[in-house]
Write a structure and sequence with these properties.
43% of the residues lie in helices and 16% in strands. It is of the alpha/beta class. Strand 13, helix 16 and strand 14 form a beta-alpha-beta unit. Its EC number is 1.2.5.1. Belongs to the TPP enzyme family. This is Pyruvate dehydrogenase [ubiquinone]. Homotetramer.
Length: 574
């Protein structure tokens, strides 16, 4: 007679799950044994459960299908929480199996006891405990349905003794994913169309919700003569083959995107939850389209809320609108983008012999050498800035990151999940030195599971973005130094192929060798610590902050740091 764990694995097999990410433990013995007996699914053995949750999130985002991670009781499943927060905030379907202590010991302050249902409530759309065999088939189906339909994390808590309990064989059922068409009503569409038709200065802000709606959004932009600004999560969905693209805004973006939004009369937000209020226009009329009505108006005042899928709503608006013949706003935005893009490209050049490498140059060379369908991942901090500004989208490439949760150390972990789906597809992680060292043990996950990920380390010996935030706020940088090893040598010791470059002249040829290596590899590049990622517009408060930083730095006896800062960034000023 099968047990609860057998049924769980059979149901996941029926669902099409082909791998489970995690670390084994005695409270998971029933599940790991059922997995061994099943033989259809791969156990991706990690060195830290947090990485397992990030990896599952990456798989779910790339495939759109349910991904699974597990953690043993107590500390084991608590380690999942950061990756699960990331998955839930990125709205990707993940099922987390959280083992629990023996049922009879619950409530006794037993060894490793926690209350996982309550712990995971804040980072999930569903969290329940299976306390009886009779619950199992239905609760499992509900958890899967919740994760798939709500596009979030479902947590199933199971004690090890319950997982080993016998149960009658029960038929499994695949949970079908639905793709509904949702449209605003006719009156709402007509109101929005009337406002859009009357404006000569419409700008579109596109986010992750434009996935699958590329052609409809481009057609709408053409009708409106509207430049398209994208958020980071919209980059791989709308940037490619887009004659209306004017780049990004926000902390990762650049001047042309910010200017197109600041100068519009109407801002049309499509599937975006762009968080930074200071980058929204002050006086424009705002129309927001989102499948989730509760998301509308969270970031800025919205004049016309439209609940609908972007693909269908954009097509419906397009059908109601005439062609806008006044295209000056669009032409000005595109011209400004061309100038901004040219300036950014000028920064992506090699350094003089003996000088640290410009991170822009590293990012540009990787972009040029990478495959047409590469999956990129990027650590939060300066690596994601260079990814945002220098990676070129093709319609087949993807960019993953902790763009909503903002966690350090996501790049390698996301890359492992992306690579596990297809070991032949190129996966490149843009890792910060702080991020990589935080999850350094996951290099062993790559070798053990034969995952040929390519990890590029932007090694500036600092928590670089934290330093930038300190400077902008007027603080002398402190406690941000990183005393790093040779990450290439560390990688070699861990069984990967390791490379290290500290001279621009060596970089291009080394990148070719690095990407051609048949297996996991690390490229450690010594980049300039003082390279500044300028925000789109320098605000008065930031200018005051930098001035205050300069004064405090000189007074603290670190004036040489200012000279290095000026020397490195002189080319950005003129």
């Amino acid at each position: 007679m099968p047990n609860v764990a057998d049924h769980l694995i059979e149901q996941l097999d029926t669902q099409g799950v082909r791998r489970i990410y995690g670390i084994p433990g005695d409270s998971l013995n029933g599940l790991t044994d059922a997995l061994r007996e099943n033989g259809h699914m791969e156990w991706v053995h990690h060195r830290h459960e947090e990485a397992a949750a990030f990896a599952a999130a990456a798989e779910a985002e790339i495939t759109g299908e349910l991904a699974v991670c597990v953690g043993s009781c107590g500390p084991g499943n608590l380690h999942l929480i950061n990756g699960l927060y990331d998955a839930n905030r990125s709205r990707v379907p993940v099922l987390a199996i959280a083992a629990q202590i023996p049922t009879e010991e619950i409530g006794s302050n037993y060894f490793q006891e926690t209350n996982p249902v309550e712990v995971f409530r804040g980072c999930s759309v569903y969290a329940e405990q299976v306390s009886d065999v009779k619950q199992m088939p239905r609760i499992l189906r509900i958890a899967m349905r919740e994760a798939i339909e709500k596009r979030g994390v479902a947590v199933l808590v199971i004690s090890g003794d319950v997982a080993l309990s016998e149960m009658e064989r029960t038929a499994t059922q695949r949970i079908a994913k639905t793709s509904p068409r949702v449209l605003p009503n006719e009156q709402e569409l007509e109101q929005a169309a009337e406002i859009l038709e009357e404006s000569r200065k419409v700008t579109i802000l596109a986010g992750a919700g434009v996935a699958g709606a590329h052609d409809e959004v481009i057609a709408l932009a053409d009708k409106l003569a509207a430049p398209i600004v994208h958020a980071m999560r919209g980059k791989d969905h709308i940037e490619y083959e887009n004659p209306f693209d004017v780049g990004m805004t926000g902390l990762l973006g650049f001047a042309s995107g910010a200017k197109a939004i600041a100068e519009c009369d109407v801002l049309l937000m499509l599937g975006t939850d762009f968080p930074y209020q200071q980058f929204y226009p002050q006086d424009a009329t705002i129309i927001q389209v989102d499948i989730r009505g509760e998301q509308i108006g969270r970031r800025t005042r919205v004049d016309v809320p439209l609940v609908g899928t972007v693909k269908d709503t954009a097509a419906a608006l397009n059908a109601l609108l005439p062609v806008q013949t006044h295209r000056k706003h669009l032409d000005n935005a595109l011209e400004h983008y061309r100038k901004t893009r040219a300036k950014l490209d000028e920064l992506a050049t090699g350094s003089k012999p003996g000088a640290a490498i410009h991170p822009q140059y590293l990012a540009r060379l990787i972009d040029q050498a990478a495959d047409e369908d590469t999956i990129f991942t990027a650590d939060v901090g300066s690596p994601v800035i260079w990814a945002a500004r220098y990676l070129t989208m093709t319609g087949k490439r993807r960019v993953l990151g902790s763009f909503n949760h903002g966690s350090m150390a996501n790049a390698l972990c996301h890359a492992l999940g992306a690579q596990a789906i297809d070991r032949k597809r190129q996966v490149i992680a843009f890792a910060g030195d702080g991020g990589l060292s935080m999850m350094l043990g996951e290099l062993l996950t790559a070798t053990q599971n034969k995952l040929p990920v390519k990890i590029v380390v932007f090694n500036n010996s600092s928590l670089n973005f934290v330093e930038l935030e300190m400077k902008a706020a007027g603080f002398v940088t402190y406690a941000t130094d990183l005393h790093n090893p040779d990450f290439g040598a560390v990688a070699t010791a861990a069984g990967l192929k390791g490379y290290r470059v500290d001279d621009s002249a060596q970089l291009e040829s080394t990148i070719r060798d690095f990407l051609a290596h048949d297996g996991p590899a690390v490229l450690d590049v010594v980049t300039d610590r003082q390279e500044m990622s300028m925000p789109p517009n320098i605000k008065l408060e930031q200018a005051k902050g930098f001035a205050l930083y300069a004064i405090r730095t000189v007074l603290s006896g670190r004036g040489d740091e200012l000279l290095d800062l000026a020397k490195t960034n002189w080319r950005q000023m003129f």
